[in-house]
Specification:
- With 814 residues, the protein is an all-beta fold.
- It folds into 8 domains: 194 residues, Galactose-binding domain-like (Jelly Rolls); 129 residues, Immunoglobulin-like, CATH 2.60.40; 72 residues, Immunoglobulin-like (Sandwich), CATH 2.60.40; 78 residues, Sandwich (Immunoglobulin-like), CATH 2.60.40.1120; 81 residues, Immunoglobulins (Immunoglobulin-like), CATH 2.60.40.10; 80 residues, Immunoglobulins (Immunoglobulin-like); 79 residues, Sandwich (Immunoglobulin-like), CATH 2.60.40; 67 residues, Immunoglobulins (Immunoglobulin-like, Sandwich).
- The strands form 16 sheets. Strands 1, 2, 3, 4, 5, 6, 7, 8, 9, 10, 11 and 12 form a 12-stranded mixed β-sheet that branches. It has a 5-stranded mixed β-sheet with strand order 14-21-20-16-17. A 4-stranded antiparallel β-sheet has the order 13-15-19-18, with no helix packed on it.
- The protein is elongated.
């Protein structure tokens, strides 16, 4: 049942009669002991206002009620630990002073109470009722009530009980609020509550619509006349910074009122100073504060005055537990107004262009107290009072213009700022462009630009609308930083920077200093292990390489063989010539036949033994020599004469010796041709044809039936023709210089001519004609004995005998 309201103040307890109970109780503290409830979320516009329970040393008059137990927004300094009572506690507190103006409650009402339990039983019920009491002490309404069952600890602890979602309730000016609190516990226990100081902050927290507010901020001259413009010409430059505040709980709830003044240049000239109260009392709804300031020596322009005010609820939210909370737990109330020293501002239009006269949108323009950003047309309009100001313009957070301008009226100012769109060209140390270098930039504003640039074929990059100033450039090329220095951007350029990139005129030579053609030069950076360049030499052994500064290993490969590796970790820090002497040696390969005579027009092939790849090839000259160059190593030689392999040498070790003789299987072969009666055959046509199909020519025998051939080793088909008839055709192996005698099919045709009486016919003309070719192979006159002999090749012949101009015989014979 709701208790009957008590209209008279409760009698203050006699502290001298409090019995101090000391009980040593060994007990298990229940896990159901409850600590204070968390604050619920506030409705928009509401603020939690805290009312602390006070223990007064003398009675306070709250309307018609006199009481020593009051509550307000200040912390008390008089602790009251009530005398332990059995089973229950009932007590109440009144809001003092009464409300200075109408206000409203909506949301949550939470009571926090410090309680001590003496006894075994833990369970209690906490209840409260909050009443609206008018000036006569009459209860107007019950605003809120709450009840909660919980378990108490056996030590002093704070507990809470809440009424949630309290409906909007308006309390009138002159009314008070009465909080009636009740604890209902066990009859075997005694209970005590504590309140009244900063250690035992028993209190009530209410969501309220009204609180301390800055109602108005004003500036007054030395005659206390309200003004917004203060003259620099007046002798008395004293002014009053004034404000008035309202607080429905009374002037006592205003914890602090401070003033701050910011000058046109952004400097704080009055820094959060405490203002003095000039009107209002502890229970007044309306209060006035002021601060006296003299503006002598301060520049003209717009000043901003900010007044900050906070009630005790906000003050305790910050101090002493959270001094860094400049919002005072969200309770800070502020108002800012502007005033001018020297006159009202004018419209100053500032037109900003870059060095190429292009409009510059997005530039930050600062002039005195005003600042703005240029629009798409490069313009900004600032409101500025009469005076002389530094005009500063920033682009990319860099000051690109700083000049003094005087403002006397509405003004147009054209400004060309130090913003450029230059071309930057990267060259090596001989002035040639460096392609594909990457440029990284540290901006004058101290930031590393996310964008990087790559040089084009001309070695150039183009910057667009960059602020003038000192840029730190880092240029990377082929993985190496080749430039790190400051570039002062003070115009459109073009700017040329010389990179640590060098050109080497490399010549690869052999052991005697002759240029080595088509040698591959490989240059490896020893720091990062990357191949910096790989080039082939021309026919004079030269090549040009462009590489960044660093240490390099130089390797030369010639015909797939490593022929130079003697230059390692070589520092390249300048351009110039570089001669690399490869392990390549000149050698004369002389090919001779079996008679040690030079073999001309022999084709020589030189191959690497290990890889089997051809290293060189060529044809011997008139001296039988092929001049070539070889690295030291093992080689295979193949020598061909008219496409016939006449020498194959395997795994020959070349040690750099300048002369080497190759003995070819080529032979001088003497061929003697004789007939079947061993008589030499003169003018016989001897033909040799290699079994590979090569024809080594046809040669006629001399007067002794001889001819000589120079032949590569191999199987040959030997053919002999005589008087247009093939008289020999056979195969022979030529593998030495042994002479060859060929007995050919040439025979002797002996005829004895007789008449019908078998008498020898003298002087008969006998002609022997080859039946196939119709060639006359023999023609002679019979001797005295009628005989005649013809030397003929094998074949079928027709014999015709003419005697005394008459054909007396004609027939075929074998």
């Amino acid at each position: 049942m709701e208790p009957v309201p008590i209209f008279k103040g409760l009698k203050r307890p006699n502290m001298r009669k409090i019995v101090i109970w000391t009980v040593m109780v060994l007990m298990l503290v229940s896990s159901l002991a409850v600590l204070p409830q968390e604050a619920a979320a506030q409705a928009p516009g509401n603020k939690d206002i805290t009312f602390y329970f006070q223990n007064c040393t003398s009675a306070k008059q709250v309307g018609a009620i006199s009481t020593m137990r009051v509550m307000n927004t200040t912390l008390g300094n008089n602790l009251n630990m009530t005398t332990p009572t059995t089973k229950a506690i009932q007590t109440d507190w009144y809001l003092y002073p009464v409300l200075a103006d109408d206000t409203a409650i909506s949301g949550n009402v939470t009571v926090h109470i410090n309680v001590l339990r003496l006894g075994v039983s833990q369970a209690v019920t906490l209840r409260f009722w909050l009443y609206d009491i008018d000036g006569s002490g009459t209860v107007i309404a019950t605003i809120a009530s709450g009840s909660r069952g919980l378990n108490l600890l056996s030590t002093w602890s704070e507990y809470s009980v809440r009424a949630t979602n309290v409906a909007l309730y308006n309390i009138s000016k002159g009314h008070t609020m009465r909080l009636y609190f009740e604890l209902d516990g066990s009859s075997s226990n005694t209970y005590s509550i504590a309140f009244g100081d900063s250690n035992y902050k028993s209190r009530m927290v209410i969501e309220m619509y009204d609180y301390v507010r800055v109602n108005n901020v004003n500036t007054l001259d030395f005659q206390r006349t309200s003004k917004t413009v203060f003259s620099q010409l007046t002798d008395n430059k004293t002014m009053y910074l004034a404000t008035n505040l309202t607080d429905p709980y009374g002037g006592y709830d205003i914890a602090l009122v401070n003033a701050t003044v910011v000058a046109p240049n952004g400097t704080t000239v009055v820094d959060d100073v405490q203002m003095s109260k000039t009107k209002g009392f502890f229970n007044s709804y309306y209060s006035e504060y002021e601060y006296v300031w003299n503006y002598s020596g301060y520049p003209t322009g717009q000043y901003n005055l900010t007044v900050n005010a906070v009630g005790w609820t906000g003050y305790y939210a910050r101090f002493p537990t959270d001094p860094g909370d400049t919002t005072y737990g969200g309770h800070l109330e502020s108002m800012t107004v502007s005033f001018w020293i020297g006159g009202m501002p004018h419209n100053v239009t500032i037109n900003v262009t870059d060095d190429l006269d292009a409009v510059l949108p997005g530039a930050l323009v600062m002039m005195g107290p005003s600042a703005g950003i240029t629009d798409a047309g490069g313009q900004v309009v600032l409101r500025i009072s009469n005076s002389t100001y530094d005009l500063e313009i920033y682009w990319q957070k860099v000051l690109v213009y700083d000049q003094t301008h005087t403002v006397l009226n509405d003004t147009w100012i054209d400004v060309k700022v130090a913003v450029y769109s230059p071309t930057i060209t990267c060259v090596d140390d001989v002035g040639d462009p460096v392609f594909d270098a990457v440029v990284f930039t540290l901006h004058p504003n101290g930031t590393m630009l996310a964008q990087s640039w790559r040089t084009d074929a001309s070695g150039s990059i183009d910057w667009d609308i960059m602020a003038g100033g000192d840029y730190r450039l880092s240029v990377m090329w082929m993985g190496v930083e080749v430039y790190n220095d400051t570039l002062t951007l003070d115009g459109q350029g073009p700017f040329t920077i010389t990179l640590k990139v060098y050109q080497l005129d490399i010549q690869v030579v052999d052991s005697i200093g002759d240029g080595l053609e088509l040698a591959q030069v490989v240059i490896t950076n020893t720091t990062n292990g990357l191949v910096a360049d790989s080039k082939l030499t021309n026919f004079t052994g030269h090549t040009t390489s462009k590489i960044p500064i660093g240490s390099y290993d130089f390797r030369v490969y010639w015909r797939n063989e490593l022929v130079f590796d003697n230059l390692s970790d070589h520092l390249v820090d300048a351009s110039g010539p570089l001669v690399l002497q490869a392990r390549i040696y000149a050698v004369n390969l002389t090919v001779v036949d079996a008679s040690d005579l030079p073999l001309t027009n022999a084709r020589v092939v030189v191959g690497f033994t290990i890889s089997g790849q051809v290293q060189d090839f060529g044809t011997t000259d008139d001296t039988g020599t092929l001049r070539t160059r070889l690295p030291v190593g093992y080689y295979d030689f193949w020598v061909y004469l008219k496409d016939v392999l006449v020498n194959e040498t395997n795994a020959f070790y070349f040690d750099g010796t300048a002369q080497h003789t190759i003995h070819a299987s080529v032979y001088w072969v003497d061929v003697h041709v004789q007939d079947t009666e061993n008589v030499s055959v003169v003018s016989a046509l001897v033909t040799l044809r290699h079994t590979d199909g090569l024809d080594f020519g046809t040669v006629a025998t001399d007067d002794e039936g001889n001819t000589t051939y120079r032949l590569p080793i191999g199987d040959y088909r030997l053919m002999v023709a005589w008087k247009e008839t093939l008289v020999y055709d056979d195969n022979r192996l030529i593998d030495s210089q042994d002479p060859i005698t060929l007995t050919v099919a040439i025979f002797y045709l002996r005829l004895h001519i007789i008449d019908s009486r078998e008498v020898a016919v003298e002087g008969a003309l006998v002609a022997t004609v080859n039946d196939s070719s119709a060639a006359i192979v023999g023609s002679s006159v019979s001797d005295d004995d009628g005989n005649i002999t013809h030397r003929v090749p094998m074949g079928t012949y027709r014999v015709q005998i003419v005697w005394q101009e008459a054909v007396v015989y004609e027939r075929n014979r074998v």
